[in-house]
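User: I'm writing a tutorial on reading structure tokens. Could you give me a worked example: one chain, its sequence, then its tokens, then a sentence or two explaining what the tokens reveal?
Assistant: Sure. Here is the example chain.
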Amino acid sequence: MTYNYFLEYRFIPDLLEQVRQGKNPLQSLIDIRWMKEILTNNNFEIDWDGIFVDVYDESYTRTSLEKGKYIAYTFPKIISVPEAKYGVIDIGAMKYYTFESDSCGGYWAIGSQDIDKHSLIEMVQEEMSLEDFMKSLKRSPVPTEKRSGCLSVIVLIIAVLLL
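And here are its predicted structure tokens:
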């Protein structure tokens, strides 16, 4: 069993909170070797060969951390729902977003994650490139009350059964 989910939805948000509080430097968010050492020493099996991190500027060009707008993680191939394909930190806002698989075939979810909760921002039917995902954050970075595609189908089925 791998713990990719733990890295994507717990470790990175916790680390971001530590950076926000000044307990860790911004550099720690891009130090995969350091993350690997910590999690491996705590018996977390993660597919480290499938994880990549880069820093991008406003025009989505790779850049240095000092000039960066986004820290972008590409995660290993999704094994199970709701693992993420990408994670992106908006450096200025200190917010973390995920592009993740949904429990309904064919749908993807754009969400935000902090140390307390996960919020749905938008459901999309098409898989996105990392650049398209980062661009989508400019359009709608605020969580909404939209239902997932699966939940909408379940609500519809229950309504029909009650008729």
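What the tokens reveal: Helices lie at 4-20, 32-41, 130-139, 149-162. Residues 144-149, 151-160 have pLDDT under 50 and may be disordered.
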